[in-house]
């Protein structure tokens, strides 16, 4: 590593002490309702400090300013996710619907076994209410874009599974749009059998892989 790069690294790390002083990663427990706000501030601060140090003539000052700006932006995005996650958990009463907050996005996972009949891309009428609840949440929190992603197991041909995953993702997107979510906010696509989350060697694993994910990505 060159002397300039070493100095830049030290400046960035030093500046982050100010950014992270009130955001202790050890204090962000799994039951902390504001954990993603804090994590967003921390990650935003790290990224902002690095960018600020790289783009400013005064490396130390640039890192501090960039870190503080990044922390503020990250905290806002994290706060939106914390609030929306809490609201969705309260409003959705189906314990088979998963909600995962990763810090930079909210992932709502619906098993295809409850969304669709076998080999169908018509949304189960009993699940439309849950999808409309998600749509209402998206309208209440408009500072995001949405990806609807279909997944299948590996039963059948890869080409057929790809098409089925696309049709099912489109069907879920259509319900969200019927619930008032703007077409411009939604991107719909299928992954077929390419992104399993469990083994396709067991029925339980294949059931986990058959899913539609609604990924909520903050835009501010």
UniProtKB/TrEMBL annotation:
InterPro entries: Bact_OuterMem_StrucFunc, Gly-zipper_YMGG, OMP_bac, OmpA-like, OMPA-like_CS, OmpA-like_sf. Pfam families: Gly-zipper_YMGG (PF13441), OmpA (PF00691). Residues 1-23 form the signal peptide. CDD domains: OmpA_C-like (cd07185). The keyword S-adenosyl-L-methionine does not apply. PANTHER family: LIPOPROTEIN YIAD-RELATED (PTHR30329:SF21), STATOR ELEMENT OF FLAGELLAR MOTOR COMPLEX (PTHR30329). This is Inner membrane lipoprotein YiaD. The gene is yiaD.
């Amino acid at each position: 590593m060159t002397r300039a790069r070493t100095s830049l690294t030290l400046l960035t790390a030093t500046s982050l002490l100010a950014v992270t002083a009130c955001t202790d990663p050890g204090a962000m427990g799994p039951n902390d309702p504001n954990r993603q706000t804090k994590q967003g501030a921390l990650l935003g601060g790290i990224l902002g400090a690095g960018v600020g140090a790289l783009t400013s003539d005064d490396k130390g000052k640039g890192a501090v300013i960039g870190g503080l700006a990044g922390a503020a932006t990250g905290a806002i995005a994290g706060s939106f996710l914390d609030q929306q996650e809490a609201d969705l958990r309260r409003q959705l009463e189906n314990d088979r619907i998963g909600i995962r907050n990763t810090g930079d996005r909210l992932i709502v996972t619906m098993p295809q076994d409850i969304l669709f009949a076998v080999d169908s891309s018509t949304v189960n009428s009993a699940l439309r209410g849950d999808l409309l609840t998600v749509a209402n949440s998206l309208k209440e929190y408009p500072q995001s874009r949405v990806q609807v992603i279909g997944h299948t197991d590996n039963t059948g041909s890869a080409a057929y599974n790809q098409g089925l995953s696309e049709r099912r993702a489109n069907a879920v997107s259509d319900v969200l749009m019927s619930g008032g979510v703007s077409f411009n906010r939604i991107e719909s696509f299928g992954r077929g059998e390419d992104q399993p989350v469990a083994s396709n060697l067991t029925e339980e694993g294949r059931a986990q892989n058959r899913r539609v994910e609604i990924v909520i990505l903050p835009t501010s």
